[in-house]
Design goal:
By secondary structure, this protein is α+β, with helices and mostly antiparallel strands. 29% of the residues lie in helices and 16% in strands.
Amino acid sequence: RMLLARRLVEAGVRLVTVDLRWWDFHKQGFDSQKRGFLPRWDLAYSAFVEDLEARGLLDSTLVVAWGEIGRTPQVNKDAGRDHWPYVMSAAFTGGGVKGGTVVGSSDAKGALPKDNRKTPQDVLATIYRHLGMDYKTSYMDHTGRPHVMLPEGNPIDELFS
């Protein structure tokens, strides 16, 4: 999947999504991650980023590693973690991102935002701006009713130098 993504970027595709279905850990989460997802993810993601850099594509390619939702701060009865919409993480690299930058934080339990809260809409605004899209643009539907592309959210400027 990462190799296909790199080939699409090389061909000029402006937005590529890589779906990694092997990372939803509601049961035996720690063991599943250690034996399955994490070694494969580490190898694939780092190779993808190194590949883009070696081909001179990393500076122009924004790479976002982002799940669909956060995870509960407590482990469930099946040694896994369930969906938790209050805190989640995203990792950005390439595309002008200043390496090593941390934006926002959670409380000590990872349950609630603590400092510099960002939303999924902020992540989308960051991606849209990178693509050169006006995320505040309105489009008219077939009845003439306007729909704002992204009604909420602002780019995460702290990520860039």
